[in-house]
Design goal:
By secondary structure, the chain is mainly alpha-helical. It folds into two domains: 1-54, Arc Repressor Mutant, subunit A (Orthogonal Bundle), CATH 1.10.10; 57-187. Helices cover 70% and strands 0% of the residues. The chain contains nine helices and no strands. Keywords: DNA-binding.
Length: 197
Amino acid sequence: MSITRERLSPEESRSAALEAARRLLIEAGPQAVTLKAVAAEIGKTHANLLHHFGSAAGLQSALAHHIGERVTAGIAEAVRRARQGEADAGEIVARTFDAFDREGAGALAAWMILSGNRDALNPILESIHHLVDQLGQGHEDRPVHETTLWLVLAALGDSLLGEAMAGALDLPRDRARDLARRHLLTAAGLAEDGRSG
């Protein structure tokens, strides 16, 4: 779906390009995320995108940063709501799994790893590290880093192989999310209904 050409500020043009790149990544896979395809999506020229990102690698790095910010913002909000009693562990798991599936972090990670461009993942990893450091403040008695490790790895694996694996095992598609929610409740010392146990 191409957007008609309109005059955008440099920030708006860059933001539109990153959203188009994320959409292409999710809908058509990494091979679809080219400067030419992104430019066509937003009604700009290839040269215009080169001006904003410098190269295809620059676009990939900016996309990783963009997705990293979206991922951590959603997870941080879910954790904040859970700590205030407005949400439960299920929302934290859902936000994390959605970040890697629907938001495109899983596809981006696989793309960067398989293409040998692991450095492009640094913005996502740095965003998660910063988030975990923030979440751990005042909660030093909880295994925030370890919990984040297994939850992110579970969400990443589910985004890449979850549907096929659940199907092969004749399990419901969302079973991995259910298991992660139960594990998070157990790790937090909560009962199944979310109350202290």
